[in-house]
Specification:
Largest sheet: 7 strands, parallel
Distance between the termini: 34 Å
CATH topology: Rossmann fold
Helix content: 40-55%
CATH superfamily: NAD(P)-binding Rossmann-like Domain
Number of strands: 7
Strand order of the largest sheet: 3-2-1-4-5-6-7
Number of domains: 1
CATH class: Alpha Beta
Structural class: alpha/beta
Radius of gyration: 17 Å
Strand content: 5-15%
Order of helices and strands: EHEHEHEHHEHEHHHE
Length: 264
């Protein structure tokens, strides 16, 4: 019963790991002894985050910039990852985008960008990394996939981001579908539906313009049943649970991490 939540020595990929929730999750894994690969579209930002996280939390954090909305980007990332590792213990599909516009003006580009990044990307990344995920997977020590959705895929979003909620509902159901298939291969698949966290994406929606340092997060938190927004410990703790021995019998679930928003 000891070390139920240990991720020490595990090889982990966190997509969209250069900022926001992805950065928080990557930090949690590094602080607990995992080797972490992060990716995002902007190479300079991804490289800088990997260096900063490694200095702050120790361990090894490797940056592999890539566009996870295209098959070419996914294949390029996988090719580079294979230059470093022959197996993968944990895949965190966190990369995501949103697009806001009034209903009458909502563009096809906004629909396609969100669906490609939030739904198509995770599916094909899982597909391409199956050999590495299966390499060390066994009945006693399965490997783990965690797909990051959103409470906007459970309840109706408050913003005019018409493709975002449906894309997150899709990744929630894709999680269940893949969980049923992959558990037979000793790969455990679950999902997280975050609520309000101090991220660039939410800052743009609440009037902060993407400036996370100067957004009034206390004001945002007062509108949450918990009385605050989420912290790095909240989201990293849940991701670590879903990637550890503690999660050996929880399959295909979508767990909210939202301070009580959905149930309230």
């Amino acid at each position: 019963m000891k070390d139920l939540f240990s991720v020490d020595g595990k090889v982990v990929i966190v997509t969209g790991g250069s900022r926001g929730i992805g950065e928080m999750i990557a930090a949690g894994f590094l602080a607990n002894g995992a080797k972490v690969y992060i990716t995002s579209r902007k190479a300079e930002v991804c490289n800088a985050t990997a260096e900063r996280l490694q200095q702050e939390y120790g361990g090894e954090c490797v940056s592999i910039p890539a566009d996870m909305s295209t098959l070419a980007g996914i294949e390029g990332f996988c090719s580079e990852f294979r230059q470093h590792e022959d197996h993968l213990d944990v895949l965190i599909n966190n990369a995501g985008v949103a697009w806001g516009a009034p209903l009458e003006e909502f563009p096809e580009t906004g629909w396609d960008k969100v669906m490609n990044t939030n739904v198509k990307g995770p599916f094909f990344l899982i597909q391409k990394l199956l050999p590495e995920l299966k390499k060390n997977a066994s009945h006693e020590t399965p490997t783990h996939i965690v797909n990051v959705g959103s409470i906007d895929g459970i309840k109706t979003p408050i913003f005019d981001n018409f493709s975002y909620g449906p894309s997150k509902a899709a990744i929630h159901h894709l999680t269940r579908v893949l969980a049923a298939h992959l558990i037979k291969r000793h790969i455990v698949v679950n999902g997280i539906a975050p609520g309000p966290f101090p991220t660039y994406m939410l800052s743009t929606g609440v009037g902060g313009g993407g400036d996370t340092d100067n957004t009034d997060w206390d004001a945002v938190g007062r509108g949450n049943p918990r009385g605050r927004v989420g912290t790095a410990e909240d989201i990293a703790g849940l991701a670590i649970f879903l990637s550890s021995r503690a999660c050996g019998f929880t399959i295909g679930d979508i767990i909210t991490c939202d301070g009580g928003s959905v149930v309230s």
